[in-house]
Amino acid sequence: MEGQKQRMNNLYLIGFMGVGKSHFGRLVSDALRYQFFDTDHVIENNEQTTISKIFKNQGEEYFRKLELDLIESGLPNEACVVACGGGLAIQEGMMNVLKTKGVVISLFASKETILERTSTNKNRPLLNVDNPEEQIGQMMNARVPKYLEADASIATDARMPADIMNHIIRTYKKINKIKSS
Ligand code: S3P
Fold it and tell me: Are 125 and 56 within 8 A, CB to CB?
């Protein structure tokens, strides 16, 4: 509306492990002057342990509940960029929660890119298996339809980082305007 300040709805970046949610989330939050949160880091900080240990000691279901609680009531409701753990948006009902709270953008990358980007980090219990390539393929097949339910989807393969960052910002502003009106 004329003269009225635009609401600064949160931006939720979702997508598979290794697509660059945290990397681009940080860049975008700096550019927008929003706060940045990485759900995995917030959970590790709150629980004073690692994601791997939470999966091992309390199980995946417990971790998913921590993600849900965090999204529902653990973060500010405006002016944040939230890099969501790869499975967060997959939970039943979560996509609607995210889309109601803010703007949801899915980042995508090819299986090869994801395999390369995730191969050096051992703090991803779901990829700590004998054949991570097969695991990534199966998990992507199961999850991609859900990721595509986001407000928008952006590919990150073979593009300049600045180009991806600007694409995310443009898309966020466009959808934020619609959601704020
Ligand atoms: C997970 C993704 C991870 C982390 C956990 C489970 C998933 O986050 O939340 O290991 O189910 O895809 P990143 O996507 O930041 O690696």
Answer: yes
Closest CA to 110 of 150, 155, 153: 155
Atom of ligand 1 nearest to the CA of 19: 14
Q: Please give the model's pTM, rounded to 2 decimal places.
A: 0.96
**Closest residue by CA, ligand 1 atom 16:** 17
Q: pLDDT tens digits, residue range 94-114? A: 999 999 999 999 999 999 999
Tell me how far apart the alpha carbons of residues 179 and 167 are, in angstroms, rounded to a whole number. Answer: 18
User: Rounded distance, CA 82 to CA 39, Å?
Assistant: 7
Nearest to 98 by CA among 8, 7, 13: 13
Instruction: Tell me: pLDDT of 2 over 60.
Output: no
- Give CA separation, 176 vs 9, 37, 42, 87, in Å: 6, 19, 25, 24
Q: Is the CB of 126 under 6 A from ligand 1?
A: yes
Q: Provide the residue type at 75 as one letter.
A: L
Residue 142's identity, in one-letter code, is: A
Select from 97, 84, 64 the least CA-distant residue to 14. 84
Question: Which helix (DSSP H) or strand (DSSP E) does residue 155 occupy?
Answer: strand 152-155
> CB neighbours (10 Å) of residue 115?
17
